[in-house]
Amino acid sequence: MKKTFLLVASILILNGCHNNNETSIKNNKTTQIEQKVDSLLKLMTIEEKVGQMNQYNGFWDVTGPTPKEGNASKKYEHLRKGWVGSMLSVRGVKEVRAVQKIVVEESRLGIPLIIGFDVIHGYKTLSPIPLAEAASWDLEAIKKSAEVAANEASASGINWTFGPMVDISRDARWGRVMEGAGEDPYLGSRIAEARVTGFQGDDLSASNTIAATAKHFAGYGFSESGKEYNTVDIGTSTLHNIVLPPFKASVNANVRSIMNSFNELNGVPVTGSSYLQRDILKGKWGFDGFVISDWASIGEMISWGHAKDKRDAARIAVTAGSDMDMEAHVYIEELAELVKDGIIDESLLDDAVSRILKVKFELGLFDNPYKYCDEAHEKEMVGNPKHHEAVLDIAKKSIVLLKNENNLLPLKKEGQKITLIGALAADKNSPLGSWRIASDDHTAVSVLEGMQQYKGNTLTYKKGADVSVGQTAFVNEVIINTEDKSQFKDAIYAAKTADVVVMVLGEHGFQSGEGRSRTNLQLPGVQQELLEAVFKVNPNIVLVLNNGRPLAVSWADKHIPAIVEAWQLGTQTGNAVAQVLYGDYNPSGKLPMSFPRNVGQVPIYYNYKNTGRPTDKDNNVFWSHYIDVEKTPLYPFGHGLSYTTFEYNNLNLNGEIFKIGDTINVSVELKNTGDRKGKEVVQLYIRDLVGSITRPVRELKGFELVQLKSGETKTITFNLDNETLGFYDNNGDYIIEPGDFQVFIGGSSTDTLGAKFQLQ
Ligand code: NOJ
């Protein structure tokens, strides 16, 4: 530590001009940091600058293909030389301290490492997968979940997370939809802000906050045919109106880093895109944090056919504004020579390094590089019981009641014979979901364990069939059971005499996530057959779905009376599910992604364009539809039921004609018409009827969570203004056009209570 202290002291003695005004204190702090960065930069050699732009993986927890030359001894040597600015996937105070000690004590300038990690939905204590959390529409709870994750990760030595993933996606085939907030840019933006502020808090220098990363910039969620790492070819309107808003919202929320991506966008790998990184992100938006590449994405521009070799890839990436190289080893091998040969200007390095150092200063790493390294604190915080309470809370809030015929749910608490079926019902591993490298395997509360807490009924458990029958040679890739039905018999027998059968079916936790695209969205393996076989003997079934993406469950929707979307809910899965099934928690989740009727409808999303032929006016075939399935989704975006019922009435506007710039108030009365208290996500959508760029049939522009007692009524008011009534044109400029609008308020994207207004 000595070196760093000496260094920082020698950089600058800053005068502490204090001011009570919070903004000026902040500005003052920023200026001080900028001065320190400038002074430090002056001391650095070209190699040391390049070193700050180099990130290596730790020696375990590999989350991407390992470069051949990425051996441990080279990494140690580079740490000592000050040629490494960051490490990822090093975890635990002991390990973090060990690598930090090398750079701080042995490298010439002792610049501390920033330690990155994929804290995606918790660290050791796991929250629901991010897509599930998005179904809560509860920004406070989502923020809290990120805070819990930051508490645990920071206590374990981590100071930077590669989250939130803010990629909008309309394609359930893409395995990474589990990591995002779904299909909508408005909801996605609000959730991005909540997650960024949850991770970063108000004070980045506090020892329980970590720097966040909005990823993957940009367009990755639009991979063609949902195939991982594939080409992305989207129009400018989709880019500016759908893909970019959550990134912009993250930048506005002061996210400290942005990760670029594996994909190309309209012919240019985004890692090498000056348009995205320099013009939009750092230019138009004024982003002052730094850009980290995705794993090896700088080198992968060679395979894309955009760079001829590593040297070319380094030149393209640094010129385009990629500040740090994650595990491509391209910057460390090529950048210094490129500067020395006069191919690139050293100012490009200075810009990148300044951004990286700035964040390190903001984190307080120069004041104390070991500020995250306290074993006693780590022991107390990681897996703390309070965190279990917090993740249980968000897990319950993430559950979506898709269907509930004849009020089969909630289950009666006494005198019932309940048969629980499904391998996933007793699974303690799969509900943890993908991306949970710091948690322990098999540590989720299973649904079986959760239901066993309710002692008034007779509960019988039968597996019915395995979901997976092993793993391939690849990391965590499961082999699905497509043949073995030998345990069907037992389950069918136990179902026959039950009052209610609860079936937990769906995807294994490792069927979604990175590298896990699917072309089939039905229940995997033999589970559909199992469901149908049990249904034949007892149709009184509650289907609990476990999945990391929307599934196409049309048969179940037609036949099964009650369906609960329970995703992968993390550590407290079973308790959350049981409390919802038994009505101790009244579900209020709403889908953040449309569920298709079959995979052929994908991509399917609520904010589609009307087309020139939206309906079958003349009873003929020439309109925009399918001939073999309805064109609507099985369950639309925003859908979700409750054990109570809600009624929307009296939608009112404070006028009919408004001027651009006016604030329009839209109010509605919401009444709880059922017999128990409940929460509703009140959603406001607009439609701009005519636009110079055609507008979607609906766009979410506001939502509020409202809790009402039975019989209670409340008036909810939303404001529409310049920020919500405009859109981006094809130059990426935000414009508001006069014209006719519709506004809709309801409990789903398909509710029809609406009104009209005009903007002049
Ligand atoms: C690749 C993934 O795309 C990215 O999201 C992740 O943060 C890095 N690997 C590091 O694990």
Tell me the structural class.
Answer: alpha/beta
- Taking the alpha carbons of the first and last residues, their distance comes to 64 Å
Task: Please tell me how large the radius of gyration is.
Answer: 27 Å
Report the bound ligands by name, code or SMILES.
1-deoxynojirimycin
Uncertain runs: 1-19
How would you sum up the major sheet? 6 strands, mixed
* Sequence of strands across the biggest β-sheet: 11-18-17-16-12-13
List the total number of helices.
Answer: 23
Number of DSSP-assigned strands = 28
Query: Tell me, what's the shape?
Result: globular
The fraction of residues in strands falls at 15-25%
**Rounded mean pLDDT score:** 95
> Helicity range of the residues?
25-40%
Short synopsis of the structure:
With 760 residues, this protein is α/β, with parallel strands linked by helices. It is built from 23 helices and 28 strands. A hairpin with a 2-residue loop joins strand 7 and strand 8 (268-269).
Features:
binds 1-deoxynojirimycin, 23 helices, alpha/beta, globular, 28 strands, 760 residues
Description:
It is a single chain. With 760 residues, this protein is α/β, with parallel strands linked by helices. It is built from 23 helices and 28 strands. The strands form eight sheets. A six-stranded mixed beta sheet has the order 11-18-17-16-12-13. It has a five-stranded parallel beta sheet with strand order 4-3-2-1-10. Strands 20-28-27-22-23 form a five-stranded mixed beta sheet. The site of 1-deoxynojirimycin has 9 residues, from loops.
